[in-house]
Amino acid sequence: MEKKIVVFDAYGTLFDVNAAARTYSQKYADDTFLKIWKKVSTLWREKQISYTWFYTSMAYKTNFWKVTEDALDYALEYYQLSKSPGLKDNLLSLYKTLDLFPEVLEVLKHLNQEGYPIAILSNGTVDMLNSAAKNARVFEYLNVILSAEDIGLFKPNGQIYSKVLQHFSCKADNVIFVSSNGWDAAGGSAFGFSTLWVNRAGLPEEKMFWQPTWSGSDLNSVLALV
Length: 226
Fold this sequence. Notes:
By secondary structure, this protein is α/β, with parallel strands linked by helices. It has helices spanning 19-28, 31-57, 64-78, 87-95, 104-113, 126-135, 158-168, 182-191; strands spanning 5-8, 118-122, 144-147, 175-179, 194-198, 214-216.
């Protein structure tokens, strides 16, 4: 029986998007930032995602690094931190080397050892994804990193999901797509993938026409599906 192709979203699924702000707060011990780093990180992420949706809905082509930088500018201005020396540059630098969630490495190792094709499919640019994967030492367990960068739009646009079919010369029903973003899992389901929503925060299911095939609390859930 042909093995399923296991495709992972990157940010929030493999890589902890709060790690940049958390690491900065610990490393530089800025009293002001230490008190509000979680709020800054949350707003940064919210704006990052909402900007991708906006640009894709307008068919305006850009890249995820630009979106990430613009979203950070908004968050820093909102919390009156725009003039903090070195803050923006340090946070952006740390975003390129985000921490993995604790279980990720062992899950990827197991899938790799069992011979499952493994891919990342992400809005992130090629440079961002390569940097994160190499820093986290997961690059060697991946068959390929697929980026939305060359298309210039973002998930849940179907052109992004179709990159998996193009690369592996497979059908959608041979893919398990794993994402921590409920809307992304729903987008994968709409495209025809079997999908696993990694619901790390214990959130309610998104009220959309399409739903994930399965849900779980962390990445270990994928091991029960292959």
